[in-house]
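Please, structure for the following, as tokens.
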Amino acid sequence: MRFSLRIALIIILALAEFACVARSNLIEGIKSFRVQDYRQAFVRLKPEAKKGNRDAQYAIGYMYYYGQGVVENRKKAWYWINKAAQAGQPEAVAALTILQQQPQSIWP
């Protein structure tokens, strides 16, 4: 019984540490974005965007749209901004509305 409790505690601590690291990536990515260190922001936020964080998704879309920290890619920008908007991220919803009104052939 004691062995099972130790294993359970080790698993819980490992999961908590993983959650802290993920949270740290998000926080550090947002900080980097705010100080316009877009390359570092992209590196930290892309994994969080892939995991479904809507704020990270919008930031990644923004960086792709304006070529901040990455090569400009409007199709990838659309993908990430749309994904964030579908998740209810307010700035992404507003951006998507504006993008849909632009007569550009890259928007689906």
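The CA atoms of residues 24 and 83 lie 22 Å apart. The mean pLDDT is 79.
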